[in-house]
């Protein structure tokens, strides 16, 4: 754990205690502390009402104050501080999802572990707190979270918890698609994704997730799980899954999954060019229109699909050799092209000619100089001689 981060959390805890309230580090930070994993954020549970937290600390952000949560900013770090659900820490912890996430850590380093979460961590076991069916009915997303922790930590799911997922799987369709998408992306990027696919198959959770039906065949394939470990971000994963699933309209699918517009556009642009890239490799046009970053992502997908080693150096070398990297680098402007047209030519012809010039320069059919471009336009019969 970053000791500076911990010290800042302890400052908040001490200030709450001085004001007469209980406060503990809780949740994933405690789990990751015991696992010696990097901690990205620290949550604090307290007996103080959210309104009192706002009074005690000068810099706060209301993120879910109706649910008792405010973010406290201290020395450049953010800490989620949440009022107990219930009247005590025990009542708060018993409402959490899994025993490994239902522990508290005091300022002095004393562990509060009423549900033996530390034992389950030592046994590498994912176990619901008390009644698993009740936990999943409170928030059905927890079923996917269990499998996400399998993918990230390599743990096993305890038998009663696993049976409860099988029994309550139909509830997953009650969860907002954005939340489901986020969990799935974390599953796909985990170090133990192949093991998590085994649980997805065993629980039939994907069968019950109606919005994912077009990808179901791919997601039930263990070879796909192995391949996903070679991909590095959500663009690559979505591209790979949608391409092998042969969806007619990947953009509509991603829109339904509430993906950011940037991701949708990038995935669609890669899928459009993938068939020819798989067959013949990257052309100058591919590298130009995709750009360097997207070309490198495309190369990882290409290598994954062909079960070969990616070659980013060659992709980057090809990109660096392009005569231009952007339309703005053309040595001729639209207003200069307009002067070459006749009165009978429609204005739309300017854009058409710029596109033709762009392709010709990228494919090195003409040098990127104004005189060479105008000469080429005349030779091609695109403007009057």
Structural account:
Helix 14 (234-244) packs across helix 17 (284-306), helix 15 runs antiparallel to helix 16 (261-280) and helix 16 (261-280) packs across helix 17. Helix content is 55%, strand content 9%. The longest helix has 23 residues, at 284-306. The N and C termini lie far apart (72 Å). The protein folds into four domains: 1-123, Beta Polymerase, domain 2 (2-Layer Sandwich), CATH 3.30.460; 124-228, cca-adding enzyme, domain 2 (Orthogonal Bundle); 250-320, no CATH class; 328-379, no CATH class. A hairpin with a 5-residue loop joins strand 6 and strand 7. The strands form two sheets. The chain has a seven-stranded mixed β-sheet with strand order 3-4-5-2-1-6-7. A two-stranded parallel ribbon has the order 8-9. It has helices spanning 3-18, 28-35, 50-56, 89-93, 117-122, 132-138, 141-153, 159-168, 177-188, 193-203, 205-208, 216-219, 222-228, 234-244, 250-256, 261-280, 284-306, 312-320, 334-338, 348-362, 370-379; strands at residues 23-26, 42-46, 60-64, 69-74, 77-83, 104-105, 111-112, 125-126, 156-157. The chain is elongated and about 85 Å long. With 385 residues, it is α+β, with helices and mostly antiparallel strands. It contains 21 helices and nine strands.
What are the salient characteristics of this protein?
385 residues; alpha+beta; cca-adding enzyme, domain 2; 7-stranded mixed β-sheet; CCA tRNA nucleotidyltransferase; nucleotide-binding; magnesium
Can you give me a brief rundown of this structure?
The protein has helices at residues 3-18, 28-35, 50-56, 89-93, 117-122, 132-138, 141-153, 159-168, 177-188, 193-203, 205-208, 216-219, 222-228, 234-244, 250-256, 261-280, 284-306, 312-320, 334-338, 348-362, 370-379; strands at residues 23-26, 42-46, 60-64, 69-74, 77-83, 104-105, 111-112, 125-126, 156-157. It has 385 residues and is an alpha+beta fold.
């Amino acid at each position: 754990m970053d000791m500076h981060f911990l010290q800042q959390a302890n400052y908040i805890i001490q200030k709450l205690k001085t004001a007469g309230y209980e406060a503990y580090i809780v949740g994933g930070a405690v789990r990751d502390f015991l696992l010696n994993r990097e901690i990205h954020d620290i949550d604090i549970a307290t007996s103080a009402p959210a309104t009192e937290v706002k009074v005690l600390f000068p810099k706060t952000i209301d993120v879910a104050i109706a649910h008792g949560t405010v973010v406290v900013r201290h020395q450049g770090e953010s800490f989620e501080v949440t009022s107990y659900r219930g009247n005590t820490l025990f009542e708060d912890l018993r409402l959490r999802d899994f025993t490994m996430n239902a522990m508290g850590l005091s300022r002095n380093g004393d562990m509060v572990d009423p549900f033996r979460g530390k034992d389950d961590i030592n046994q590498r076991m994912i176990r619901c707190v008390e009644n698993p069916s009740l936990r999943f009915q409170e928030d059905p997303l927890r079923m996917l979270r269990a499998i996400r922790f399998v993918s990230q930590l390599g743990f096993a799911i305890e038998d009663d918890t696993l049976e409860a997922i099988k029994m309550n799987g139909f509830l997953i369709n009650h969860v907002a698609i954005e939340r489901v998408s986020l969990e799935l992306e974390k599953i796909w990027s985990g170090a133990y994704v192949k093991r998590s696919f085994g649980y997805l198959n065993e629980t039939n959770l994907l069968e019950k997730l109606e919005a994912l039906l077009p990808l179901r065949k791919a997601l039930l394939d263990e070879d796909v799980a192995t391949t996903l470990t070679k991909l590095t971000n959500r663009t690559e994963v979505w591209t790979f899954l949608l391409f092998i699933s042969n969806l007619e309209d990947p953009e509509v699918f991603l829109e339904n999954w509430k993906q950011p517009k940037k991701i949708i556009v990038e995935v669609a642009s890669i899928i459009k060019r993938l068939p020819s890239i798989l067959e013949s490799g990257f052309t100058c046009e591919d590298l130009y229109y995709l750009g360097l970053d997207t070309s490198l992502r495309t190369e990882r997908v290409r290598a994954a699909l062909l079960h070969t080693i990616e070659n980013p150096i060659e992709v980057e070398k090809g990109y660096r050799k392009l005569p231009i990297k952007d339309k703005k680098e053309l040595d001729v402007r639209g207003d200069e092209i307009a002067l070459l047209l006749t009165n009978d030519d429609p204005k739309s012809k300017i854009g058409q000619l710029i596109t033709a010039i762009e392709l010709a320069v990228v494919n090195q059919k003409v040098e990127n100089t104004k005189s060479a471009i105008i000469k080429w336009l005349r030779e091609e019969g695109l403007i009057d001689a």
